[in-house]
């Protein structure tokens, strides 16, 4: 029910009654992520988390991450489907924490919108909560802000932040990587949540509507492009436990593509050549590149091309690592070997996002013959 038109705030376009209803609709989903360590329930000024479990650590290091979903939300808005964007958010935020070997503890979210539609907000938060449950993360709080005049009635954006913990002597990173380590790829579920400005540009230039059928993708364009980001946190934490001392570093393949993100988790002076022939980019990438008339290699700095995560593993444990990942329903395979000697001539990606890391390039042709 909308607020009375005599309310000055309502006259300015802010409906606090709708906001309260949205909170009521999302309460059950949020509570489902709460274990006994979450105090105070839903609706407090601050989310409370009992950190006494950290007393069992010798030297607990807190890991934090914050991110959003990017322009993928524009497609959700275009087809009025909002129940998967929350999983995208958790994938972008929580899966960054596991890169250092950390177990996620809790997360908060922020939704800015032009108009609070309670059912829409509840769909978004329900997706966040379900993904938090899948990754063992408590959703301890959040905020929904109505910004009339700044955002249109159908517009919204989402962001989140999460905190995790890792024992200091169990932290993963480039310093553990050795000559001869194997680089293992974990398959993505599709585009995940990066490169959607390019996706939307391609689709718009081709005159494609999000409700149009995408025959090669087995759905409408909107549905196919909203395929949610795969969640890697639980499988990777299991991998670390099942292959003790075998996992040296992890890389979340997000903005910047495969080479740049792998380079960030390799030591300075090391190098790796990722062999394209070990996999075929997922159909969605090939279809989009074909429509754009762009060689698929030209998109390597934008899209994940079928690899959502990379694990740098001790050479003698690579088979065990691949088997452990595959047993959890994620296709995995070796794409490269790390070297610390003199590297071949030619251009390499060297570090990224301010990190002085190793050097990486992609070589060869993709398994399906794409150039």
TrEMBL record:
Question: Which reactions are catalysed by this chain?
Answer: 2-formamido-N(1)-(5-O-phospho-beta-D-ribosyl)acetamidine + ATP = 5-amino-1-(5-phospho-beta-D-ribosyl)imidazole + ADP + phosphate + H(+)
Subcellular locations according to the entry: Cytoplasm
Question: Which biological process, per GO, is one annotated for this protein?
Answer: adenine biosynthetic process
Keywords attached to this Swiss-Prot or TrEMBL record, sorted alphabetically, are: ATP-binding, Cytoplasm, Ligase, Nucleotide-binding, Purine biosynthesis
- Give all residue intervals belonging to the PurM-like C-terminal domain: 178-344
| GO CC list | cytosol
Any Pfam family hit: AIRS
Q: State the PANTHER family in the record.
A: TRIFUNCTIONAL PURINE BIOSYNTHETIC PROTEIN ADENOSINE-3, TRIFUNCTIONAL PURINE BIOSYNTHETIC PROTEIN ADENOSINE-3-RELATED
**Membership in a protein family:** Belongs to the AIR synthase family.
List the protein's name.
Phosphoribosylformylglycinamidine cyclo-ligase
Q: What is this protein's gene name?
A: purM
């Amino acid at each position: 029910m909308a607020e009375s038109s005599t309310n000055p705030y309502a006259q300015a376009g802010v409906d606090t009654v709708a906001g309260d209803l949205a909170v009521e609709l999302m309460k059950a989903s949020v509570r489902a992520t709460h274990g006994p360590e979450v105090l105070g329930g839903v609706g407090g000024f601050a989310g409370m988390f009992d950190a006494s479990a950290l007393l069992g650590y010798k030297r607990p290091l807190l890991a934090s991450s914050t991110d959003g979903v990017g322009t993928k939300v524009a497609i959700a808005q275009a087809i009025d489907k909002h129940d998967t964007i929350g999983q995208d958010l958790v994938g972008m935020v929580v899966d960054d924490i596991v890169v250092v070997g950390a177990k996620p503890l809790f997360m908060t979210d922020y939704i800015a919108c032009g108009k609070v539609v309670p059912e829409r907000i509840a769909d978004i938060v329900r997706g966040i909560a379900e993904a938090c449950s899948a990754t063992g993360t408590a959703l301890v709080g959040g905020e929904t802000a109505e910004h009339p005049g700044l955002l249109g009635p159908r517009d919204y954006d989402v962001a989140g932040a999460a905190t995790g913990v890792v024992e200091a002597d169990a932290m993963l990173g480039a310093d553990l990587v050795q000559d001869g380590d194997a680089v293992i790829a974990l398959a993505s579920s599709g585009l995940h949540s990066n490169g959607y400005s390019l996706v939307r540009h391609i689709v718009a230039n081709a005159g494609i509507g999000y409700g149009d059928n995408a025959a090669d993708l087995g759905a409408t364009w909107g549905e196919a492009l909203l395929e949610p980001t795969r969640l890697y946190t639980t499988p990777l934490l299991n991998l670390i436990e099942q292959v003790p001392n075998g996992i040296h570093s992890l890389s979340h393949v997000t903005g910047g593509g495969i080479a740049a993100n792998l380079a960030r988790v390799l030591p300075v002076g090391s190098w790796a050549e990722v062999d394209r022939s070990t996999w075929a980019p997922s159909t969605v990438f090939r279809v989009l590149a074909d429509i754009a008339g762009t060689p698929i290699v030209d998109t390597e700095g934008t899209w994940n091309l079928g690899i959502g995560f990379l694990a740098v593993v001790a050479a003698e444990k690579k088979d065990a690592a691949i088997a452990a990942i595959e047993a959890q329903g994620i296709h995995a395979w070796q794409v490269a070997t790390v070297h610390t000697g003199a590297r071949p001539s030619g251009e390499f990606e060297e570090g990224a996002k301010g990190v002085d890391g190793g050097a990486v390039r992609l070589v060869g042709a993709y398994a399906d013959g794409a150039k």
